[in-house]
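Re-run requested by the PI after the first attempt was lost when the workstation crashed. Everything re-entered from the original request form. Ligand of interest: pyridoxal-5'-phosphate.
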Amino acid sequence: MKAVDSRTIIYSDYQATTPLDPLVVEKMNPLWSDSFGNPHSSDHIVGWQAAKVVTAATESIATLIGADPDEVIFTSGATEANNLALLGLARRTIKKRHRILVSAIEHKCILETAQTLEKQMGFTVDMIPVDKQGRIDLGALERLLDETVLVVSAMAVNNEIGTIQDIPKIASLLESHGILFHCDAAQAPSAMDLRDLATHTDLASLSAHKIYGPQGIGALYIRRDIQNQVEPLIYGGNQQEGLRSGTVPVALCAGMGAACDILTSPDITEERMRVAKYRDTFVELLQDSSFPVIVNGPDVENRHPGNTNLQFPNFDAHEILAALQPWLAASTGSACTSGTPQPSHVLNAIGLTKDQSKSSIRFSFGRFTSNDEIEKAALLVHGTLDHLESESYKKSA
Ligand SMILES: Cc1ncc(COP(=O)(O)O)c(C=O)c1O
């Protein structure tokens, strides 16, 4: 395949991964060359300097979610953080707590991990249903709670339909049963203020490449007083309180820290509003066209500002996306599920039929989206629908 400069494409897939912020690159650049130290080398200044960089990054992440720096463990991304949370707790729990609850619209890396615990360790996994907007059915959740539940895992913001969950409310339901709360917050930092996240949760997962930071790094917040209830996935030199052995990647840590600093800056509210406005304009432009376009998922008030998920009745989403290459990048569902023939479990959970799901595309916008791109993107999609319709008319004639 010929390499295409991704800067010339209208990039509308910010929930799959975000471009690196130039400030993040600036922070990381010297660390690839001049400052190459091992942050765990405690006998010399090269190591101390690297450790200082890692400490600063940890502080930035902790500030983003209202945690203390010693409660932040670096991982390779949110997938590993989610695995560490569920597998780690399950492998140290007492027998009585043998149930795990996960929402029906969790990312595959939560669902697969929970299923593995069911198959390999005899846990019972219950799915918490969601309504048409993707919001957790709090009544159903309450009915599932008792002293046999070890942990509830619910994401803060969904990656396909952008639903924002009521995290404080979920937390309040779990308290009286002594149930731990894990929150996959990978998509949340661009969508909402997370200063209270650590107050409401016991564990929370983050990913740098969803927040304009580098790929290959994430973090798991683990409340200090439950850290001894988590068995590591990786054993070795006992770095990071023994919870995740291995040398932490200094440049990536610094990049993640810089990405978090931008998210805690005062400009971020304006950014969220701007992105939401572009998203709304895009949807309006498409809905004004001659083809029916249906929005899947929540109202804009309960939705990631950059997310929309659109159904194009009687069209195949993959055909639309293929015809849009190499001008516009968007996707059907999550990147990790794309390529698998099954329809999205998220769209299924909110009540869409297979056909509705097959004609649905997620568009996600972000920090570097421009008004001009939004207008061009709507024209491109409209032109593509026109083209596909005339092609199918020719075939059937
Ligand atoms: C909600 C959610 N959780 C977890 C992940 C996995 O993140 P990572 O790519 O950092 O492993 C993703 C990525 O798509 C996600 O959207």
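Saved to the shared folder this time. The two ends are 34 Å apart (CA to CA).
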